[in-house]
Amino acid sequence: AMVMAERCRRAIAGARWDRRPITVSIGVATLTPATEGAPALVQEADEALYRSKRAGRNRVTHGSAATPVPAG
Predict the structure, then answer these.
(1) pLDDT (tens digit, 9 = 90+) per residue, 37-49?
(2) Which terminus of the chain faces fewer neighbouring Cβ atoms within 10 Å, N or C?
């Protein structure tokens, strides 16, 4: 999921946009036996997304990662 999210992030950041550059921040979560259902999985991805935004945006962050992966 991290590889696919990074491919999407790079494609969006590298595309030509008419009005201004566009980037995305993406949060990724992994379903494990310890995951307490779909709501918990979505919450983990959502929290990872907001960590990406707080770290400067245009990043992919995994729910269990201590720090977001910067663009590039």
Answers:
(1) 999 999 999 999 9
(2) C
